[in-house]
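Example record used in the benchmark description.
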Amino acid sequence: MPASPSAALRPPLSSVPEEHGWIEAARAGDLEALDCLLRRHEPWIFNLALRMVWRRDVAQDATQEILLKAMTHLGSFEGRSKFSTWLSRIAVNHLLNVRKSEMEERRMTFVDMARSLDECEDSELPDESLLPIGHGLLVEEAKLGCITAMLMCLDRRQRLAFVLGEVFGVTSDEGAEIMEVSSANFRQLLTRARQDLYQFMHDKCGLVNAANPCRCTKKAGAFMRNGWLDPHRRQFTPERLASVREVAPGRLEELQAAQRAYAEVYRDAPLTHAPAILERIRASFAGPDR
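Model output (C-alpha coordinates):
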Protein backbone atom coordinates (compact mmCIF):
# COMPACT_ATOMS: atom_id res chain seq x y z
CA MET A 1 0.00 0.00 0.00
CA PRO A 2 2.90 2.51 0.38
CA ALA A 3 2.56 5.57 -1.86
CA SER A 4 5.03 5.68 -4.70
CA PRO A 5 7.43 8.65 -5.12
CA SER A 6 5.64 9.60 -8.34
CA ALA A 7 2.31 9.77 -6.49
CA ALA A 8 3.84 12.08 -3.90
CA LEU A 9 5.02 14.40 -6.68
CA ARG A 10 1.67 14.74 -8.44
CA PRO A 11 0.38 18.34 -8.71
CA PRO A 12 -1.02 19.67 -5.41
CA LEU A 13 -4.70 19.40 -6.36
CA SER A 14 -4.55 16.25 -8.46
CA SER A 15 -5.90 12.88 -7.33
CA VAL A 16 -4.50 9.37 -7.28
CA PRO A 17 -6.84 6.39 -7.80
CA GLU A 18 -5.96 4.86 -4.44
CA GLU A 19 -6.75 7.95 -2.40
CA HIS A 20 -10.43 7.24 -1.69
CA GLY A 21 -9.49 3.82 -0.32
CA TRP A 22 -6.77 5.34 1.84
CA ILE A 23 -9.21 7.84 3.31
CA GLU A 24 -11.81 5.21 4.19
CA ALA A 25 -9.21 2.85 5.64
CA ALA A 26 -7.58 5.65 7.64
CA ARG A 27 -10.97 6.57 9.10
CA ALA A 28 -11.25 2.97 10.26
CA GLY A 29 -7.91 3.22 12.06
CA ASP A 30 -5.58 1.77 9.41
CA LEU A 31 -2.22 3.44 10.13
CA GLU A 32 -0.68 2.20 6.89
CA ALA A 33 -3.42 3.93 4.89
CA LEU A 34 -2.94 7.05 6.99
CA ASP A 35 0.78 6.90 6.23
CA CYS A 36 0.00 6.77 2.48
CA LEU A 37 -2.16 9.91 2.78
CA LEU A 38 0.59 11.71 4.67
CA ARG A 39 3.24 10.74 2.16
CA ARG A 40 1.01 11.89 -0.69
CA HIS A 41 0.35 15.36 0.68
CA GLU A 42 3.19 16.20 3.06
CA PRO A 43 5.61 17.58 0.42
CA TRP A 44 3.10 20.15 -0.85
CA ILE A 45 2.01 21.25 2.62
CA PHE A 46 5.62 21.56 3.76
CA ASN A 47 6.69 23.54 0.70
CA LEU A 48 3.72 25.86 1.07
CA ALA A 49 4.62 26.41 4.73
CA LEU A 50 8.31 26.97 3.93
CA ARG A 51 7.45 29.73 1.47
CA MET A 52 5.14 31.29 4.05
CA VAL A 53 7.44 31.32 7.10
CA TRP A 54 10.96 31.21 5.56
CA ARG A 55 12.55 29.06 8.28
CA ARG A 56 12.72 25.31 7.75
CA ASP A 57 12.20 24.33 11.40
CA VAL A 58 9.14 26.59 11.70
CA ALA A 59 7.75 25.15 8.44
CA GLN A 60 8.25 21.62 9.78
CA ASP A 61 6.32 22.46 12.95
CA ALA A 62 3.53 24.11 10.95
CA THR A 63 3.29 21.13 8.59
CA GLN A 64 3.06 18.71 11.48
CA GLU A 65 0.30 20.77 13.11
CA ILE A 66 -1.62 21.02 9.83
CA LEU A 67 -1.45 17.29 9.11
CA LEU A 68 -2.34 16.36 12.68
CA LYS A 69 -5.31 18.72 12.55
CA ALA A 70 -6.45 17.24 9.24
CA MET A 71 -6.08 13.64 10.35
CA THR A 72 -7.83 14.32 13.66
CA HIS A 73 -10.80 15.74 11.75
CA LEU A 74 -10.71 13.22 8.92
CA GLY A 75 -14.18 12.03 9.88
CA SER A 76 -15.60 15.44 8.96
CA PHE A 77 -14.42 15.15 5.34
CA GLU A 78 -17.63 14.65 3.35
CA GLY A 79 -16.18 14.42 -0.14
CA ARG A 80 -17.93 17.55 -1.42
CA SER A 81 -14.58 18.74 -2.73
CA LYS A 82 -11.36 16.93 -3.50
CA PHE A 83 -9.46 15.77 -0.43
CA SER A 84 -6.46 17.85 -1.52
CA THR A 85 -8.65 20.98 -1.63
CA TRP A 86 -10.05 20.21 1.82
CA LEU A 87 -6.54 19.68 3.20
CA SER A 88 -5.18 22.79 1.47
CA ARG A 89 -7.97 24.85 3.04
CA ILE A 90 -6.92 23.60 6.48
CA ALA A 91 -3.32 24.50 5.66
CA VAL A 92 -4.25 27.99 4.47
CA ASN A 93 -6.36 28.72 7.55
CA HIS A 94 -3.53 27.54 9.78
CA LEU A 95 -0.86 29.55 7.96
CA LEU A 96 -3.00 32.69 7.97
CA ASN A 97 -3.32 32.51 11.75
CA VAL A 98 -0.10 30.86 12.94
CA ARG A 99 2.24 32.90 15.11
CA LYS A 100 4.49 35.14 13.03
CA SER A 101 7.94 33.82 12.21
CA GLU A 102 10.98 35.88 13.13
CA MET A 103 11.21 37.04 9.50
CA GLU A 104 7.62 38.29 9.61
CA GLU A 105 8.21 39.98 12.96
CA ARG A 106 10.69 42.26 11.23
CA ARG A 107 7.80 43.68 9.16
CA MET A 108 10.18 43.97 6.24
CA THR A 109 9.03 45.97 3.23
CA PHE A 110 10.47 45.96 -0.27
CA VAL A 111 12.16 49.26 0.61
CA ASP A 112 13.79 47.59 3.62
CA MET A 113 14.95 44.65 1.56
CA ALA A 114 16.40 46.89 -1.14
CA ARG A 115 18.33 48.76 1.53
CA SER A 116 19.60 45.50 3.06
CA LEU A 117 20.84 44.23 -0.29
CA ASP A 118 22.51 47.56 -1.08
CA GLU A 119 24.25 47.58 2.31
CA CYS A 120 25.34 43.95 1.91
CA GLU A 121 28.65 44.47 0.14
CA ASP A 122 29.65 41.99 -2.55
CA SER A 123 32.40 39.57 -1.57
CA GLU A 124 34.22 36.56 -2.93
CA LEU A 125 33.21 33.11 -1.75
CA PRO A 126 35.38 31.39 0.87
CA ASP A 127 37.79 28.69 -0.23
CA GLU A 128 35.62 25.71 -1.19
CA SER A 129 37.87 23.33 0.78
CA LEU A 130 36.83 25.12 3.97
CA LEU A 131 33.12 24.64 3.35
CA PRO A 132 30.85 21.63 3.98
CA ILE A 133 29.23 22.15 0.56
CA GLY A 134 30.42 23.26 -2.86
CA HIS A 135 30.17 26.78 -4.18
CA GLY A 136 27.31 25.86 -6.52
CA LEU A 137 25.09 24.65 -3.71
CA LEU A 138 26.08 27.60 -1.54
CA VAL A 139 25.03 30.06 -4.25
CA GLU A 140 21.77 28.14 -4.78
CA GLU A 141 21.02 28.40 -1.05
CA ALA A 142 21.72 32.14 -1.18
CA LYS A 143 19.42 32.57 -4.17
CA LEU A 144 16.56 30.63 -2.63
CA GLY A 145 16.93 32.42 0.69
CA CYS A 146 16.83 35.77 -1.07
CA ILE A 147 13.81 35.12 -3.29
CA THR A 148 11.93 33.61 -0.35
CA ALA A 149 12.78 36.66 1.75
CA MET A 150 11.19 38.74 -1.03
CA LEU A 151 7.94 36.86 -0.42
CA MET A 152 8.06 38.00 3.20
CA CYS A 153 7.53 41.57 1.95
CA LEU A 154 4.01 40.57 0.84
CA ASP A 155 1.22 40.27 3.38
CA ARG A 156 0.10 36.73 4.20
CA ARG A 157 -2.93 36.64 1.93
CA GLN A 158 -1.00 37.98 -1.05
CA ARG A 159 1.82 35.54 -0.31
CA LEU A 160 -0.59 32.60 -0.20
CA ALA A 161 -2.24 33.64 -3.46
CA PHE A 162 1.16 34.00 -5.11
CA VAL A 163 2.47 30.61 -3.96
CA LEU A 164 -0.76 28.82 -4.87
CA GLY A 165 -1.35 30.54 -8.20
CA GLU A 166 2.05 31.53 -9.54
CA VAL A 167 4.32 28.89 -8.02
CA PHE A 168 2.08 25.83 -7.68
CA GLY A 169 0.00 26.79 -10.69
CA VAL A 170 -3.52 26.23 -9.34
CA THR A 171 -6.36 27.84 -11.27
CA SER A 172 -8.16 30.90 -9.99
CA ASP A 173 -11.23 28.76 -9.20
CA GLU A 174 -9.15 26.26 -7.21
CA GLY A 175 -7.26 29.00 -5.42
CA ALA A 176 -10.50 30.75 -4.57
CA GLU A 177 -11.97 27.55 -3.13
CA ILE A 178 -8.88 26.95 -1.01
CA MET A 179 -8.72 30.53 0.30
CA GLU A 180 -12.51 30.75 0.60
CA VAL A 181 -12.80 33.89 -1.51
CA SER A 182 -14.34 34.61 -4.90
CA SER A 183 -12.37 33.83 -8.05
CA ALA A 184 -12.23 37.55 -8.79
CA ASN A 185 -10.82 38.25 -5.33
CA PHE A 186 -8.20 35.52 -5.73
CA ARG A 187 -7.11 36.99 -9.06
CA GLN A 188 -6.95 40.43 -7.48
CA LEU A 189 -4.73 39.16 -4.65
CA LEU A 190 -2.48 37.39 -7.13
CA THR A 191 -2.26 40.37 -9.47
CA ARG A 192 -1.29 42.73 -6.66
CA ALA A 193 1.32 40.28 -5.37
CA ARG A 194 2.80 39.94 -8.86
CA GLN A 195 2.93 43.67 -9.42
CA ASP A 196 4.69 44.43 -6.13
CA LEU A 197 7.09 41.51 -6.26
CA TYR A 198 7.99 41.72 -9.93
CA GLN A 199 8.54 45.47 -9.80
CA PHE A 200 11.04 44.92 -7.01
CA MET A 201 12.77 42.12 -8.92
CA HIS A 202 12.92 44.24 -12.08
CA ASP A 203 14.61 47.02 -10.13
CA LYS A 204 17.00 44.91 -8.02
CA CYS A 205 17.40 41.27 -9.11
CA GLY A 206 20.07 40.22 -11.60
CA LEU A 207 18.27 36.93 -12.21
CA VAL A 208 15.60 38.64 -14.29
CA ASN A 209 17.20 41.92 -15.33
CA ALA A 210 20.79 41.74 -16.56
CA ALA A 211 21.19 45.49 -15.94
CA ASN A 212 20.99 44.96 -12.18
CA PRO A 213 24.33 44.50 -10.39
CA CYS A 214 22.93 42.20 -7.68
CA ARG A 215 24.30 38.69 -8.31
CA CYS A 216 23.82 35.60 -6.15
CA THR A 217 27.48 34.62 -6.57
CA LYS A 218 28.55 37.97 -5.13
CA LYS A 219 26.02 38.00 -2.30
CA ALA A 220 26.47 34.44 -1.00
CA GLY A 221 29.70 35.21 0.84
CA ALA A 222 28.22 38.40 2.27
CA PHE A 223 25.11 36.52 3.41
CA MET A 224 27.39 34.11 5.29
CA ARG A 225 29.30 36.98 6.87
CA ASN A 226 26.06 38.61 8.03
CA GLY A 227 24.74 35.36 9.50
CA TRP A 228 21.90 35.10 6.96
CA LEU A 229 23.25 31.89 5.43
CA ASP A 230 24.67 28.94 7.37
CA PRO A 231 26.21 26.27 5.09
CA HIS A 232 25.88 23.76 7.94
CA ARG A 233 22.13 24.36 8.36
CA ARG A 234 20.64 24.90 4.94
CA GLN A 235 17.01 26.02 4.82
CA PHE A 236 16.11 25.47 1.17
CA THR A 237 18.42 23.01 -0.61
CA PRO A 238 18.47 19.78 1.47
CA GLU A 239 16.16 16.84 0.63
CA ARG A 240 15.51 18.10 -2.91
CA LEU A 241 12.80 16.09 -4.69
CA ALA A 242 12.39 18.06 -7.92
CA SER A 243 11.80 21.60 -9.10
CA VAL A 244 8.28 22.91 -8.58
CA ARG A 245 8.12 23.60 -12.32
CA GLU A 246 8.64 19.90 -13.09
CA VAL A 247 5.65 18.69 -11.08
CA ALA A 248 3.19 21.60 -10.81
CA PRO A 249 0.67 22.37 -13.55
CA GLY A 250 0.95 25.37 -15.85
CA ARG A 251 0.54 28.86 -14.53
CA LEU A 252 -2.77 30.68 -14.58
CA GLU A 253 -4.04 31.49 -18.04
CA GLU A 254 -3.75 35.25 -17.49
CA LEU A 255 0.03 35.04 -16.98
CA GLN A 256 1.63 37.24 -19.61
CA ALA A 257 4.77 36.25 -21.51
CA ALA A 258 6.61 39.25 -20.07
CA GLN A 259 6.12 37.88 -16.56
CA ARG A 260 7.42 34.39 -17.24
CA ALA A 261 11.05 35.18 -16.47
CA TYR A 262 10.00 36.34 -13.01
CA ALA A 263 7.67 33.40 -12.37
CA GLU A 264 10.26 30.86 -13.50
CA VAL A 265 12.67 32.06 -10.79
CA TYR A 266 10.15 30.82 -8.23
CA ARG A 267 8.96 27.75 -10.14
CA ASP A 268 12.55 26.57 -10.60
CA ALA A 269 12.97 26.47 -6.81
CA PRO A 270 13.11 22.96 -5.33
CA LEU A 271 10.26 20.94 -3.95
CA THR A 272 11.84 19.60 -0.78
CA HIS A 273 10.99 16.94 1.78
CA ALA A 274 11.22 16.98 5.57
CA PRO A 275 11.10 13.31 6.67
CA ALA A 276 11.09 14.04 10.40
CA ILE A 277 7.51 15.26 10.11
CA LEU A 278 6.16 11.85 9.16
CA GLU A 279 7.99 10.11 11.98
CA ARG A 280 6.50 12.53 14.52
CA ILE A 281 2.97 12.08 13.19
CA ARG A 282 3.24 8.29 13.02
CA ALA A 283 4.37 8.25 16.65
CA SER A 284 1.52 10.49 17.79
CA PHE A 285 -1.12 8.39 16.03
CA ALA A 286 0.39 5.04 16.96
CA GLY A 287 0.42 5.86 20.67
CA PRO A 288 2.75 4.37 23.29
CA ASP A 289 1.28 0.85 23.11
CA ARG A 290 1.28 0.29 19.34
